[in-house]
């Protein structure tokens, strides 16, 4: 599903964010990426959807070699990857349902299919009764559910989430995690960078720890492993 072979990333300012990453993530896995601030977690996951370009090495995502990928094929790659951010990134002038529908409109899905699928994923995230609210009429947890619905609406093979519970209180964080678990149970691969110790320690999934741009730990049923 996702393979990195000796991947290095140096930013234009000279910061060496990743220093020789080797990893293989299989279809259907649920992977936490942990590590201290500035360790390279965001860089690691941004490489997976080509938000960041590597300096050296090779990355394969669902059969696509990311460095060889022609510009016009990038939408094809992105369709197979759903992304969830810490700050939700919803379009403020669109309703919850319209935010989710937008992700299908850009791939030119038929209108009828959009309506049906939007209802389905809004139910999946537990917001079947909030379709017409604007983001600022929703709580943080509800906004993140909309963002998760938007990420899954095109049936991606993988969801990449960067600190998705970072702005949420503990109870709301757990509600969001249950949504991610449900999506993973349906076969979608999930890669999540997080500082949430309690969630990582309770869920007991694969944990990849990054420090100084290197993978220092990779455990099947791992623990968070840091004090913060
Ligand atoms: N666009 C950029 N330009 C230059 N340096 C960057 C850029 N993005 C990240 N860095 C640097 O790369 C290193 C790794 O950053 P990254 O954001 O990947 O870490 P992180 O583990 O996700 O941190 P955090 O937990 O604080 O989000 C840091 O030294 C950071 O300052």
UniProtKB/TrEMBL annotation:
Keyword field contains Cell division: yes
Locations listed in the record? Cell membrane
Q: Which SMART domains match?
A: AAA (SM00382)
| Xref: SUPFAM superfamilies | P-loop containing nucleoside triphosphate hydrolases (SSF52540)
Query: Could you tell me the superkingdom of the organism this chain comes from?
Result: Bacteria
UniProt keyword annotation of Amino-acid biosynthesis present: no
Question: Which membrane topology term applies here?
Answer: Peripheral membrane protein
The UniProt entry's GO biological process terms, in alphabetical order, are:
cell division
Provide an example Pfam family for this protein.
ABC_tran
Q: What is its main location?
A: membrane
> Which molecular-function annotation in GO is an example for this chain?
ATP binding
Coiled-coil annotated spans: none
The ABC transporter domain covers 2-227
Keyword list, A-Z: ATP-binding, Cell cycle, Cell division, Cell membrane, Membrane, Nucleotide-binding
Q: What does this protein do?
A: Part of the ABC transporter FtsEX involved in cellular division.
Oligomeric and partner information: Homodimer. Forms a membrane-associated complex with FtsX.
Family under the similarity heading:
Belongs to the ABC transporter superfamily.
Q: Give the protein name, as stated in the record.
A: Cell division ATP-binding protein FtsE
């Amino acid at each position: 599903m996702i393979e990195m072979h000796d991947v290095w990333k140096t930013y234009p300012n000279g910061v060496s964010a990743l220093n020789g990453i080797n990893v293989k993530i299989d279809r259907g896995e649920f992977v936490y990426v942990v590590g201290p601030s500035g360790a390279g977690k965001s860089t690691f996951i941004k490489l997976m959807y080509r938000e960041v370009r590597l300096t050296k090495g090779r990355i394969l995502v669902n059969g696509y070699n990311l460095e060889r990928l022609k510009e016009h094929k990038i939408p094809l790659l992105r369709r197979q990857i759903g992304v969830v951010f810490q700050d939700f990134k919803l379009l403020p002038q669109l309703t919850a349902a319209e935010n989710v529908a937008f992700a299908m409109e850009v791939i030119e899905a038929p209108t009828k299919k959009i309506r049906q699928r939007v209802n389905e994923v809004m139910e999946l995230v537990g917001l079947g009764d909030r379709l017409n609210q604007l983001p600022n009429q929703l709580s943080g947890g509800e906004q993140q559910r909309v963002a998760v619905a938007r990420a899954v609406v095109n049936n991606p093979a993988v969801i990449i989430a960067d600190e998705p519970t970072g702005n949420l209180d503990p109870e709301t964080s757990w509600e969001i995690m249950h949504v991610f678990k449900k999506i993973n149970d349906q076969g979608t691969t999930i890669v999540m960078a997080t500082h949430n110790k309690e969630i990582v320690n309770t869920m007991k999934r694969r944990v990849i720890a990054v420090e100084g741009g290197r993978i220092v730990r990779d455990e099947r049923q791992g623990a968070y492993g840091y004090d913060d």
